[in-house]
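Reviewers of the previous submission asked for a worked example of the structure-prediction workflow described in the proposal, so we include one complete record here. The input consisted solely of the amino acid sequence. No template or homolog information was supplied to the procedure at any stage.
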Amino acid sequence: MQPAPPGQERAQGRRGARADALPARLGVVVPPVASFRPLLRQLWLHLQRGFALEVERRRPFLWLPIAMGVGILLYFAADREPALWAPLLGLGLSSAAAFILRLRPLASMACLAAAAAFAGFAAGVWRTADIAAPMLERSRIGKLSGFVESVEARDNGARIVLLVTDLANVPADIRPKRVRVSMRSGAVAPGDHIVATARLLPPPGPARAGGYDFGRDAFFRGIGAVGSISGKIALAPAPYPMPTRLAIDVMIDRARNALTKRIADVGGGQGGAVAAALVTGKRGLITEATNNDLRAAGIYHIVSISGLHMVLAAGTIFWLVRALLALSQTAALHWPVKKIAAVAAMVGATGYCIFSGSDVATERSLIMTLVMLGAILVDRAALSMRNLALAAIIVLLREPEALLGPSFQMSFGAVAALIAFAERWERRDRSEPPSTLPWPLGPIWTASLGIVVTTMLATAATAPFGAYHFQTFNPFGLLGNAMALPFVSLFVMPAAVFGVLAYPFGLDWPAWALMGLASDAVLKVAHWVATIDHSTVTVAAFGPAVLGCFSLTLLWLTLWTTAWRWLAVLPLIGGVAIAGKPERPEILIERDGSGLAVRGPDGRLAIAGKPSRFVLQQWLAADGDSRSPDDPSLRAGIACDRLACVAQTADKRTISYTRKRLAIIEDCLRADLVVAAIPWTGACKAKLVERMALSRDGATSLYRTASGWSSHVSEPNAADRPWTRRRERRAAEPTTRPANQPAIAQPAPTVDTEAEADTERLQ
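From that input alone, the workflow returned the following structure tokens.
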């Protein structure tokens, strides 16, 4: 190495002297950069040793479902339907590379992660192709006929799912395979073939740009239209025999309805309705007031048959069979009692899943439970992170779309947090003996502490997902769960198991009566917690980037066991920083132009027009606004006459909303933004959002910029997926009307759309 010239050395010396003198004059002691190098090197060596220990414990395997989830997210991010051969080719090449590089651990792990991502992508393509069915493209009113697949009684009628056999004026190749409709009057039974006049709508897209896509959810549930039945329902001969699969489903649904009625009648009131929902999965008898109390108390999860119910039911069967076999000396000494009990619990859990309707959340819980019980059969720990990872892989391969829903995210997040805590608890320092308390204080203290700790962990793990999907947080959920879960665990679920076993003998009424009493106690707890101030806190919606940071924090903290886990603080800080400054739109426009919301000078939304109640609830929740859709203050700051409504934003921009052509001409000259609920092709000096654009782009959100407005739409023009509306037909539809005839606005979503959201919320 050549020495530096003398002039350069002097220059460097002077610069270094000045740099060293400046902190000294300021009174700040700055260590030389070289002093950090040993510290950084020690930190790096510590991380290397930690990673080697993680590999020795086979923890990198736990990241395979995470890589698979990344592939699924990439699939849903595509703007058109991908080809299947591409991810399969990537899967094959990545797997081959992992085998070739098996002697180089890091390279092999990277190839396996890529293979898992390609597998998730391919699973998404396969699932979509397998379940694809036509979806209604526009609203229709006409004769509908079909087989009744299921019936769910509700306070104001019933909701039924029909396997469509005919729909007036809709060719068979574009006719929905299955529709869900609500009915106000009449009585039908599963298996009936009915004919009625129905008002059907396409499954709605997101209520706001970036919101939950109900159309995609309906597509993966096999539902091609939603709506309501008007008029008389008539039984009619079926055009073909009932399919075998449908006949089995009908038989199960009839049994579910009969048992639901039996439990609700014996249990009585809302306690009986909740008890029936816990056993059969039929939640229609639960009133909205009860649902609101359960949400506010943070115990809404108990009315959805998912992980909690599956574990309690399987655990009760497991304990009961094992206890009965232990009474026999021969069985206890010579038979594998524990494994027999595990098999019985697996059979019981499977039957419970089938009988309760095999909802998406229930099926995921069943898979997790079967994996846990299967570990007992091979003499492994039933509750381990590896079993959770296997369950996640099975669920994602079978139902890739589940990754986008709150059910999957919240259930797996909560279980991961509980298992991680259990693993650390097992490795705790046991040098000091635990304090002992006299009976019964000792068991009561242990049980109470267990409920509090597990509830805190589950609440912390699921809070980001609940805030992202529902924009709510229940700060008293710990109190509600701590008070309600003992009733569910000790009385409700054991009584449910004994009631189901006694039901064929007609000796089941004591079990349902006990369930009703215990459920009433749970509802009283929920109502008491709901009356506490701020029991439900509404938070502003945050974007997928924030959710990704929080998810990575949870995964990093739970999947690693060494000092590597403390790196989870980095995504946590990033998520909190981004969530602390949410970007809220200035204008929200409904997808059919029936109404809009404007952010006024006070920073709150004001409503013009008549947006549907469901959409308005979505807007307010996403804005972190706890007002009811009926709050009169929502109309404050909006001036309306018979032609239009006018509002002003905080920066004095004028917003006009109109349904009349004369008002459009006038407001285009003086307003900064004109929203028209009718088509308009004329010139407009202001920015114009009219009916044809909304029909094309769906719900629209406008953000204020220095040069004007930036728009985000719920259905981008580039997106062409099986669950989106077809662009070419939507674009062609307005041209079929005379130029001087206004467009007919698409009907607002009916009650069934709200039920769609409630269904997802229940899971």
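The mean pLDDT is 82. We consider this example representative of the routine output the project will generate in years two and three.
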